[in-house]
Request: fold
Amino acid sequence: MSDTALVTQSDLHADALARINETVGSLRALRTFIKAEMVKGVDYGEIPGTKKKVKTEDGKTVEVPAQALLLAGAQKTTMYFNARPRLDVRGTELAGGHVEYLVVCDLIHRGTGNVIAQGIGSCSTMESKYRFRNASRVCPGCGQATIFKSKEPKPGKGWFCWRNRGGCGLEFDGAAPEIVKQDNGKVENENIHDQRNTVLKMAKKRAQVDAAMGLGCMSELFTQDVEDFDTYEIPDEGFAAGEIPLDAPPPAANEVPKAAPPAGAKRPWLEVMAEQKGRVGAEAYLKVLNDSEFDRAEQITEVADRARIYKELLAIPGVQQPERAK
Reply:
C-alpha cells in the first residue's frame, strides 16, 4: 500500500471520528436542552399505565412511564434548531358534512432557507371522539340533564329529575315516551361542522410534532402514540394494572373535590368504585356508567375511561347519610 493511500485512509478515519464526535455532542446538547427547558405537563406528558425501558447515565436500565411530546415541546425543539414550520394543508370533503385534513409540515432553517425536516399529520371528523357525542336524557319540565332511573320504581313512577343535581324534582312513569324515546349514550354528533376547526388544529399539531421528533431523533425519549394526550386531563399517576391513586381521605358528604386525589398509595379499581357508589348513591353511580355505555365497573378496562369516569364521580356531591342513633 502506498504512502498516499495510507494518508488518505488515515484522513478518512479522522473525518469519520470527527463526525461521530460531532453527532454525539449534538445529541447530548439537545438532551441537555430538553432537561433544562421542557416542562412536564406543558411540553410533554406521562402516559398512565405504560412502561418503557431506558438507560440511566450510569448505564442502568430502568422502567419509566412513556412520555408523549406535546405541541409546546415540538415548538421549542423547532426553535432550538433555528427553524420555522411551513404547513401545507389539504382538506378532503367527506359524506355527511365530514371532512379530513392532511397536513405536511416542513421545518425551514432560518439561516439557509433549506428544508431540514418533514412531518405528516392527519385528522378527520370521522374519528370517534369527534363523530360521536354522549347524549343524556333531559327533563321535559326543567330541561336539565338530571333524569335518573329509580332503583325500585313504584307504579306510575320510574324516572325522576334529581333535585340534588340541579333538577326540579318531577317524577315520570317508567314507560313515559318523553323520557324513553330520548337519545342516550353515544350518538352521532349532529353539529359536526362545529368540529372542523378542531380537527384542522389537531392535524397541524400532529404534523409539527412528527417533524420535530424526526429532526431531534427523539423517538427514544418521546412517543406520538397519544397525539391528543392534552385534549383531556389525566391524573399524573395511577390507573395502571387495575389500580388508581388514593392516598387522600374520601370526600365528605355533599363536598365537591377540586381535583383528583394526589398520587401515592394505590387501591384496587373495584374497591374504589364500590366506595364511590356508596358515596354518591346507586342511581347517580349507574347514571355515570350508563352514559359511557357501561353497566358494571368490571367492564371499564381502558385507562382513559377509568380516569374520566372516576373524575365524573368525584364531581357529584355525596348523598346525606342518616345519622346513627346515639
Q: What stands out?
A: The chain is about 35% helix and 25% strand. Confidence is low (pLDDT under 50) at residues 1-7, 225-265, 321-326. The first strand starts at residue 44 and ends at 46.
